[in-house]
Amino acid sequence: MLSAVCVGETMAMLTPVHAVPLHLATELHFGVGGAESNVAMGLAAMGLDTHWVSRVGHDGFGTRILHELQDHGVGVSGVEVDQSLPTGLYVKVPAQESDPDGGSSVLYYRQGSAASAMGRDTLSNPAVSALLENAALIHLSGITAALSPECLSLLEAILTSPRNGRTISFDVNWREALWAGQDRSVLQRLANLADVVLVGKDEAEHAFGTTDEAELRHMMPDPKVLVIKNEAISAISLDRSGSREEVPALSVAVVEPVGAGDSFAAGYLSGMLFGLGQKERLRRGHVAAACTLTVHGDRGPLPDAAELAAILDSSDDVWAAIHVEDGQFNTRTGA
Ligand SMILES: Nc1ncnc2c1ncn2[C@@H]1O[C@H](COP(=O)(O)OP(=O)(O)O)[C@@H](O)[C@H]1O
Ligand SMILES: O=C(O)C(=O)C[C@H](O)[C@H](O)COP(=O)(O)O
């Protein structure tokens, strides 16, 4: 079976149970959060043999993360348990009435974490090198580049390795808080070493200074495919051969946006591994993202196989009439 390997940090995630200022919170929900492991769980849910390469601390947070990944069918033989450094942690602070933008924010406690100490030496772990060698897809993200110089050199080593039939995907995953005072131009260099690049329009503005499709392609000429996501509007794939595909996003009653980008990546990349065309890949991305948008938390369950196939095979008119609410895909009347 085709296998996928996702590489990156996953943290313990604490979220105040009630939307109050953090210092007034009395209960915190304990979950798990990490972009690349979200993609790994998404790919496993699509039926692919999937593995996660990372490092966690020898602590309860690390154990919880390993269990979560295993429970979702993701292999963890490529995860090292660091005996001295801790598992990274982050706190999701909900939107406050006092915040004029109404947005939620994130506090990271990941500097000096076990995963941020990953580097080129991670590749000399025989379990890791075997996984990467046998992978049809290796998925990376720009988050790793910002974690430490060692993590950046790990990305560079993977991205410059001979492909031998493998595809390397790179989600830009802009994280403002991680890039303060750092040279963001490395993201363009890394993206140009990848085969498939995914970026949101909002992220592109921060990472590359433009949201213009042609300018972005000009800045990233090397990847075979550049996928540009435009939230509720559409997602576009630009092939190096010059072909362009645009698929409108689904109508979704959004509960919480976190994790939608990772789910989109899992949907798109699963379609690629199944040998589907660009339109089908983009549709899979939208469907997986919609499932996550309608739940709290980083991932929502997919429809069963028969319903998924019907949604993916629907005509453009039916696709345009689909509305997703509470994880249910309904076709609005009139289509
Ligand atoms: N409001 C929305 N309505 C419908 N789909 C959405 C909406 N927001 C996001 N999506 C879906 O989620 C995908 C990823 O969105 P994006 O904003 O790029 O995520 P992230 O910022 O988490 O990376 C989009 O391509 C689309 O499929
Ligand atoms: O911020 C980080 O470093 C994380 O990895 C934690 C988050 O759970 C995912 O990144 C969600 O990602 P989106 O799909 O882009 O919403």
TrEMBL record:
SUPFAM superfamilies: Ribokinase-like. GO terms for molecular function: 2-dehydro-3-deoxygluconokinase activity; ATP binding. InterPro entries: PfkB_Carbo_kinase (IPR050306), PfkB_dom (IPR011611), Ribokinase-like (IPR029056). Residues 2-304 form the Carbohydrate kinase PfkB domain. Keywords: ATP-binding, Kinase, Nucleotide-binding, Transferase. Its EC number is 2.7.1.45. It holds the Pfam family PfkB. The keyword Magnesium does not apply. Belongs to the carbohydrate kinase PfkB family. This is 2-keto-3-deoxygluconate kinase.
